[in-house]
Amino acid sequence: MELATFKKLVLASAIAGMVTIYGCGGGGGGAATPATPAGSATISGVAATGAPFANAAVTLTDAAGVVKTATTGADGSYTIDVTGLTAPFVIKVSGDVGDANQTLVSV
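Predicted structure:
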């Protein structure tokens, strides 16, 4: 398996896992988060290749070519508002991990 293909699978798995976890809700305490307005949707995930993509550029492109951007947090997490966009989405994350610049792409 090529390294690029492996990286894509890792990112896709991470995104799928985060979407699953995000959808579960949870009952933990902590600070309240603002409610998502009716009719809006977000995609959240964590970009990592073992180590997180900290402060990396995230680009989401929808089926119509509309582009939204975000920046990952220190832990590689990101959230993008996809309200009004058309699936499927292509997500691209570019940034430094360790001492190497890397790019991951997922659908």
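Summary: The helical segments are 3-24.
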